[in-house]
Structure formats: structure tokens, C-alpha cells
Design brief:
34% of the residues lie in helices and 20% in strands. It is an enzyme of class 2 (transferase).
Length: 397
């Protein structure tokens, strides 16, 4: 069986997911096209050799509709002969794209494939797809008569179950910003971020190279003054155990972004004279309670470690998506994970969570962290809507 290897991985610096954000004036097709072009330019491969492009995007509506991965590769100048598909596994969409790409290589169906993702939350607001529609149907209503809830409530339920108080959540969130600010100052992201020209507030063209969502001055005292985001009388009555600790400060911000990873067989890399940076060691996907929704990274991680014959202490770095602070904290408690290895360059609370882009963004950051530190194994996992998660273990080469 061939190895599925990562040859290169790139991302855009995050933009605030609101009008006026750094990337908000750029069409999402062009965000994705830019990282696809960057992969080709950096590696020098002929794009005609790419067997498939598999992209992740959550809000596949409006400017992100009609298979944005195919539209983006055409905009990027790839030949007409290169196909593409766009998938939705909610927040883990591009991580799942990477799984499908690697699995295709392992099966011998692909030699060279790109996994990627994009989300413009400024131009296509979260929740746009099902507006005015019943996205669940009568079967879900019958199975869950009290109704499913949105992710903010799920985060509150996790905080209550794992007894995570407000100060603990805010301390973790401040640390995310501090680590991300340190990473920026040290140039840790310089090799993974590709510059993109954007229009600033005055209409001038500038190069966007720094994550816009990181707030270096964030501290616990400032976060303590923020109000609960999700408490309503209805939810308070339904969930008396909730303490209503989730605020904008311990949640990931709305974000624009795109990222892409070039994956191929080891033989193809050798043939093209390219150096593999990492290989896929094991991966897994799992489901969990859709009301708690955000806990599936725990069983997904256990499955991926078991498939790879590894223990948590064998892993040199963990990238656990910070949709909300309780998610990585509950994960770390259940896995007995070393907090020093958890999101060492900051996580989504600081760097942003551009939904469909986040899976390959985490993978990009993880590859670069292992190279910078000399670590061997890295693990990433991502909570996803409706109670799912992907987990991926990579090995630096």
C-alpha cells in the first residue's frame, strides 16, 4: 500500500468575518483560487497532473454555491481537465476532504490530489443555507421531541458537565490569543501564510499577511466583563444545569479564510523530485450525542490513536479546534492530554474559525509546527455540527 504524503500546505491569514474585514471585499471563489494557485507556484507541479480537487465549504449557497471547488480551480487557471467536488461535513469539511484525498491515494485511485477549504462568513453569513426552511424533518422531531439545539447551547452543556467555570474558560481563551500573538511575533506562520492583495478601508491595495482575529492585549480581566452570548429564558428553563459561561471572548470569531494541502503518493513525489513533509499515519471519524454535539472529538481521537497503534503521549502536538473553549478543555481532560502540547500556536479562539477552511488550516499549522520543533507525530481533531468529528494523525518525514 502506498503512503499518502503531504508535499505542501498553505493558508490565508484570517480576516474578520464581517463587512470591513480584511478579506470581506474578496469573492470567496477568489480566496480559494488564490491558495490553489499558491500550491502550484510553490511546488512547480503541472496542474494538469492533479487527479482531483476536494474542497470543504459549509454555506454552499450564493457566492459559495455550485461546487465552489471547481469554480475556484478554473479561476486559478487549472486546465479544464481537472475535476473537483465540494463536500460538507460542517466545521470538519476540509479535514474530511483531506481524509478522502489521502484515502484515494492509499487505495491507488489518485496519484496527486489537493484537499482544500474556504468560507467567507462576511459575505455568506452563518445560517444562510436553511433560512426559512425546515432542515430536520419529521423524523428528527419524533426522535428528539425536545428539539436539537445550536452549538452555543451545546458548549454550555459541555462546560456544565465537565465543571468548567467561567474563569477557567477565560484563562484558556486568553492563552490562545497570547500563544497566537507570540507565534506571529516569532514568525512561526510565515511559511504557511501566502500573501493576498486586498482592498483596505480607503480602497488602496494592500498585502494581507497577518491573522486579523488575534488580539494580543486579551487578558482574563477583559474577558470577564463580557456577557453571556446564548442565555434565554427558554433555554434557562430547559437546561437548569447550564451556568451561561459562554461569551464572545471564549468562542471562535466569525472568520473569512481559505487553505489548501497538496497530497500525493510517495512514488509520485519521488518522480517529481518533491520532498514529502509528512505522511498520513491514521485517521478516523466518529459520531456522538447531537445535543451535546461538540464532544465527538473524544471518541474520534481514541479511534484514530487505536488505528495507528499510538497513545496520547506519543503525540508531540495536538490541534483541537477551539470552536468554544469547553471543547478542547473537555477533550484534554478525557484524553489526559498534556496542556503544553495543546494548540501550541494558539487556536481558533484567536486565529479564527472559517468553517469550511478550518480543517486544512489546522493541518497546515500542524505540519509547520512539527517541522519547527522536530516533533514526529501530530494529531488534529475538529468538532462538527450534529455531533460528529474527524481525527487525523500525521507523521513528520
Amino acid at each position: 500500500m502506498p503512503n499518502a504524503v503531504i508535499v505542501d500546505a498553505v493558508r490565508l491569514a484570517s480576516g474578520k468575518g464581517k463587512m470591513g474585514g480584511a478579506l470581506s471585499a474578496t469573492h470567496p471563489v477568489e480566496l480559494l483560487a488564490h491558495v490553489l494557485r499558491s500550491l502550484i507556484d510553490r511546488t512547480g507541479i503541472d496542474p494538469a497532473q492533479v487527479d482531483d480537487v476536494i474542497g470543504g465549504c459549509v454555506q454552499q449557497v450564493g457566492e459559495q454555491a455550485l461546487n465552489i471547488s471547481r469554480t475556484a480551480l478554473l479561476s486559478a487557471g487549472f486546465p479544464d481537465s481537472v475535476p473537483a467536488t465540494t463536500i460538507d461535513r460542517q466545521c470538519g469539511s476540509s479535514q474530511q476532504a483531506a481524509h478522502f484525498a489521502a484515502q484515494g491515494v492509499l487505495a491507488g485511485a489518485y496519484d496527486i490530489v489537493i484537499a482544500c477549504g474556504v468560507e467567507s462568513m462576511s459575505r455568506i453569513p452563518m445560517g444562510t443555507s436553511p433560512i426559512g426552511q425546515d432542515a430536520s424533518g419529521p423524523g428528527i422531531a419524533a426522535r428528539y421531541p425536545d428539539g436539537l439545539v445550536h452549538q452555543g447551547i451545546s458548549a454550555e452543556l459541555i462546560a456544565a458537565k465537565w465543571k468548567l467555570d467561567r474563569e477557567t474558560l477565560d484563562q484558556y481563551s486568553a492563552r490562545s490569543h497570547q500563544r497566537a500573538a507570540h507565534a506571529i511575533a516569532q514568525g512561526w506562520f510565515d511559511h504557511e501564510i501566502v500573501p493576498i492583495d486586498v482592498a483596505d478601508g480607503a480602497g488602496a491595495t494592500v498585502s494581507h499577511t497577518v491573522d486579523e482575529t488575534v488580539r494580543s492585549a486579551t487578558d482574563v480581566a477583559g474577558l470577564a466583563g463580557l456577557n453571556s452570548s446564548f442565555r434565554t429564558d427558554e433555554f434557562a428553563a430547559r437546561f437548569p444545569e447550564a451556568q451561561w459561561h459562554i461569551t464572545p471572548g471564549n468562542s471562535s470569531p466569525l472568520t473569512d479564510g481559505a487553505s489548501a494541502v497538496l497530497i500525493m503518493s510517495e512514488e509520485a513525489a519521488a518522480r517529481l523530485g518533491l520532498r514529502p513533509r509528512a505522511r498520513f499515519h491514521s485517521f478516523a471519524v466518529a459520531g456522538d450525542d447531537p445535543v451535546f454535539m461538540l464532544t465527538a472529538p473524544i471518541p474520534a481521537t481514541r479511534k484514530a490513536l487505536a488505528k495507528g497503534g499510538l497513545g496520547i503521549d506519543d503525540i508531540d502536538a495536538y490541534e483541537v479546534n477551539e470552536a468554544f473553549a469547553p471543547v478542547p478543555l473537555a477533550w484534554a481532560h478525557e484524553l489526559a492530554a498534556d496542556p503544553a502540547k495543546l494548540n501550541p500556536a494558539g487556536g481558533a479562539i484567536a486565529l479564527g474559525h472559517a468553517l469550511g477552511s478550518s480543517g486544512t488550516r489546522l493541518l497546515t499549522t500542524l505540519v509547520n509546527h512539527l517541522e519547527r520543533t522536530g516533533g514526529r507525530y501530530g494529531l488534529q481533531t475538529m468538532c462538527e455540527g450534529a455531533g460528529m468529528a474527524n481525527a487525523t494523525v500525521i507523521e513528520r518525514l
